[in-house]
Amino acid sequence: MQTSPGDTSRSLLVAFRLRLRAALCLRAEPLGTATTYAPQQEQEAQGGNATVEFTFLALLLMVPVVYFVVTVGQIQGGSFAVVGAADQAAKVFVTQRDPVSARIAAERSVLVALRDHGHDAEKASITIACNRGSCLAAGATVTVTVRLDVSLPLMPFADVLQLHASRLSASASQVVGRYQ
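Structure (tokenized):
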């Protein structure tokens, strides 16, 4: 029995189609049947599937991306708040006459700066350090450090469970002026 080159190419084509269908997990057809491509029938059979698939994938992929962007925005806003609060507290501290009123004024300025950026005062702490015995002596350097815990956004029990996106801190120093 002789085979012609046309028969060999046909058998190779049928074998390729069977392998392709198996690789794509499609239903296998009997060897003797010829497959015909009907794009109109296939489009009608899959009508509306693209919308469902797109919606599912968009929700599955976009929700974590949006949450990540919001979290990074909260951390960036917290870093701006901490830097501004430390800077303003140090400036306010060195302008006061006595240490008690200086500390109160510095703490109030930290509260205002944090509130301006939308952060709670309960999540912040302030530390004031001086390089000399008297913080308000001429030439003394006052360093104010502000720490802030930034919570995860849209978490209802983040405070109770101690879930923080980041713990930020910033320091600012000011020298007490010679002439006050």
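The longest strand covers residues 164-175. DSSP finds four helices and three strands in the chain.
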